[in-house]
Fold:
Amino acid sequence: MPKMKSRRGAAKRFALTKTGRVRRRKAYASHILTKKSRKRKRSLRQAGLVSPREEKRVKRMLAC
Structure:
């Protein structure tokens, strides 16, 4: 039986936490930052978590 391959695009974007949740980067933080408030940009720096509904799909892409 061959090995399961992870989807490389997903592997670069997501990471697993110790508790098994999936960590992700927040969207809208790459460009057009002048019109966004300082508070909003600061909150975009923190990593977010994938919603429980999408978690199963992302874990399957990561081949965990």
